[in-house]
Amino acid sequence: MTINGLLLSLMYLSCTDGEIIESNDCGVSLIEIPDLKSETEIVLSATPLSDIWDTYVSINGESVEITSLQRLSCGSCDTCRIEQQCDSCEECTECTALCDTSVCFEEMTILTPVLTQDTAQLQIINKFGHSPVYNLSITQ
Fold this sequence. Notes:
- The chain is an alpha+beta fold and 140 residues long.
- Helices cover 18% and strands 34% of the residues.
- It is built from three helices and ten strands.
- The strands form two sheets. Strands 2, 4, 5, 8, 9 and 10 form a six-stranded mixed sheet that branches.
- A hairpin with a 2-residue loop joins strand 4 (56-59) and strand 5 (62-63).
- The N and C termini lie far apart (69 Å).
């Protein structure tokens, strides 16, 4: 078999059906709807958050810089969810008190781009899923 024949065979095999792995989409939600301001840092309170490296925030379809992401006092919530074997997206009644947003505080700071209109569309995507597209007001 020639090298071209071998490559063709490998390409054919790579296109065969394989196992499909399903992932959860929890939906990411803003806890408070902020007003945006052009070219400034804005704090977004949202849940569930993961890590800065797997989080994407867009304003009007363009990626914005995330300058910090914090999950404060969430260790007990995370431990409880693991111990109770709760799916990452499901409501875990045994852990409700520990995972309440007044206890487990999640926020990130983003740097907004130049915003010239009265409203902007913001969306958050991370390993847990994505938020709806939020239409936010822009203040001067």
